[in-house]
Amino acid sequence: MFRAGGFTTQPNWNCVEDDFVLGACAHRPFGFISRSPTGVWTAFNSNAHPVGEFDTLSDAQSALWATHQPTHTIRCIETQRSWLSLCRRGGRRDSEGVVS
Ligand SMILES: [Zn+2]
After folding, report:
1. Is residue 33 part of a domain?
2. Structural domain boundaries enclosing 66
3. Residue 93, in any domain of the structure
4. Which of 19, 23, 74, 97 has the most C-beta neighbours closer than 10 Å?
5. Which of 67, 74, 69, 80 is nearest to 27 (CA)?
6. Cut 0.85: pTM above it
C-alpha cells in the first residue's frame, strides 16, 4: 500500500473535519489536532496525550510535528533507509571500471 511518490519526510495533514486534523507520515498517524468551541487548537500525540494548546492550527501542527521528530528519526527514517538500501542493492555503480 504505497503511494506514488514514495517516502516523504514531511507530514501529511488530513482534515477529517473542520475542527479535527490528523497528522501522518510514513504510512501511520503520529497524532491529531482538534479545535475547541472557544477556538483553541489542542494537539495530541499518538497516545492521545495532549501536547499543548495553540491559537492557530499552524502552530499546533509545528508543535505536534516537533514532538514526533525523535520517534520519526528512529522509526520512520530507519524504515525509509532499509527500503532504500534494498532498492540500491545490485544497482550500485563502480567508478573504478575505466583505466586508460
Ligand atoms: Zn514519522
Report:
1. yes
2. 12-87
3. no
4. 23
5. 80
6. no
